[in-house]
Design brief:
108 residues; mainly alpha; membrane; UPF0060; transmembrane
């Protein structure tokens, strides 16, 4: 399960970077060259999703929980926004949901 969670976190980072770089280009007057690594990052995101051993719908559902946690950590570390107790509570609930889904992959 730890390997799956780490793979999900890598997947989330790839997706967030792939979306953050175009945002920098559009909203912060960044260079259009940011679109090249963004596209590569989104390709890595799609490829990483294919590495999971479960049906795609279950992978996407479980991935959503990890994405919530990763996006909030990005908000804290990259954007410098202090997270509230509500943020942390929501992240915990989402992550627990991912763990429940992943735990049932071999049993469904």
């Amino acid at each position: 399960m730890l390997k799956t969670a780490l793979l999900f976190f890598l997947t989330a980072i790839a997706e967030i970077v792939g979306c953050f770089l175009p945002w920098l280009w559009l909203k912060k007057a960044g260079s259009a060259w940011l679109l090249l690594p963004a596209a590569l990052s989104l390709m890595a995101f799609v490829w990483l999703l294919t590495l999971h051993p479960a049906a795609s719908g279950r992978v996407y559902a479980a991935y959503g929980g990890v994405y919530v946690v990763t996006a909030l950590l990005w908000l804290r570390v990259v954007d410098g926004v202090k997270l509230s107790a509500w943020d942390w509570s929501g992240a915990l609930v989402a992550f627990c949901g991912m763990l429940i889904i992943v735990a049932g992959w071999g049993r469904a």
